Amino acid sequence: MLSTALPAIVTPTLPGPHAAAIIARRADVVPSAVRCGYPVVIERGAGAMVEDVDGNRFLDWVGGVGVLNVGYSHPEVVAAVKQQADRYFHAMSNIITHEGFVDLAEQLARRAPVRGDKRRTFFANSGAEADENAVKMAKAFTGRPNIVVFSGAFHGRTLLTMAMTAKKAYSVGMGPFPDGVCRADFPDLYRAPGALSGQQAIDYYLRRLEEVFEQASPASSVAAVVVEPVQGEGGFIPAPISWVQALRRICDEHQILLVADEVQCGYGRTGRLFATEYWREAGAAPDIVTSAKSIAAGIPLSAVVAREEIMESVPGGVIGGTYNGNPLACAAGLKVLEIMDRDRLPERAVQIGQKVGARYRQMADRFEAIGDIRGLGAMIGLEFVKDRASKEPDAELVSALVRDCAAHGLLVESAGTHGNVLRFLAPLVITDAQLDAGLDILEAALGRCTATSAADGPRGAAA
């Protein structure tokens, strides 16, 4: 069975002949801005595995960039969607109510760790749509024009979310952007300035946030602070809980809403269904949570959950959409929650994270290029540097690792502001044997790529 198979490359070269032909056709008809540097054309997928059109098998540690927490083609999700498809594909939520829409809204309202006893759920189609609608809700509720986001943030590619996203490679030439988006420094403890560490570093980043209120927007004009519990594109950096607690106090002091973007880190990935369950346990629950990606196992769906008074402050017509809460997506979403609960996938994420983290630490003892290992649950970042003392990013090594791993049957992807972080987002249904195989491929790739770099010249001294 593909779901329990191990990686195997059977063609003499990658891409294989059939994949190469399809990739060439793609290059001829799809905008080159929609890049794909991987030599894979999928024929079928199951669990954490992909088989391509030439019979090569790849272990996927990217998982659709966090979309496939329950794996490719989960048979129960497939059955649920087929059953729904036999009844109807679409029911426009402004015109016709379908019960799956209500069932999923009720479940998410009950489960999301946001403030308030009575919550409501809004559906959209993508993470960017969810984030943009969360900002609309915050502005409607507070009557304020501005928001605060962070360095390293990624929130989407709509006009507003491009402005919210930190890395401007995602928005070259797309301005002018909406105003009222202010940026503070995210607490990247590995790259805190000087010799700051621990509480000193947390205090530094809190002061930087306060400076936004002094230099960019008075707090009285800020509707929301929008933050990822674990930064995704920014480099898999968890928000320290003590910083989140202080952020919650600052928001309360100034009547600012705290919005958690769980598009990439949510749905069991961090060891909880929502990463902000850790926040709630620390007394710092957010006001609004956004979710997408793994919410429906690959069918486009996203959600915003907030307490009733926030949701009910939005004027009629301001939020909505043709496909929001599509019946096929809701059927998948309901089955995903059932699988998460029954198979205890959040707990499995903790086990995966412990295994991967332990192996990464062993690799760090062997390879000086590994500068930092961080994450939460099974959302783990491995940061590579040219020199442990200077922490100079090594994006070239990461690019080489991505290529080398793919050539040996492991799909991995880079992240981080400097492109020097390898992200781990394998489906939570990955087997232990597959996990071991992937770790072996990565370690072997590290040996090859660092040896090549060493042959090209010195990489710098270890810390």
TrEMBL record:
One Pfam family hit: Aminotran_3
Enzyme Commission (EC) number: 2.6.1.19, 2.6.1.22
Record's keyword annotation contains Chloroplast: no
Coiled coil: none
Pathway: Amino-acid degradation; 4-aminobutanoate degradation
Reaction catalysis annotation: 4-aminobutanoate + 2-oxoglutarate = succinate semialdehyde + L-glutamate; (S)-3-amino-2-methylpropanoate + 2-oxoglutarate = 2-methyl-3-oxopropanoate + L-glutamate
GO molecular function, one term: 4-aminobutyrate:2-oxoglutarate transaminase activity
UniProt entry keywords in alphabetical sequence: Aminotransferase, Pyridoxal phosphate, Transferase
Cofactors that this protein relies on: pyridoxal 5'-phosphate
SUPFAM superfamilies in alphabetical order: PLP-dependent transferases
Enzyme class: transferase
Protein family (similarity comment): Belongs to the class-III pyridoxal-phosphate-dependent aminotransferase family.
Protein name: (S)-3-amino-2-methylpropionate transaminase
Source organism (scientific name): Propionibacterium cyclohexanicum
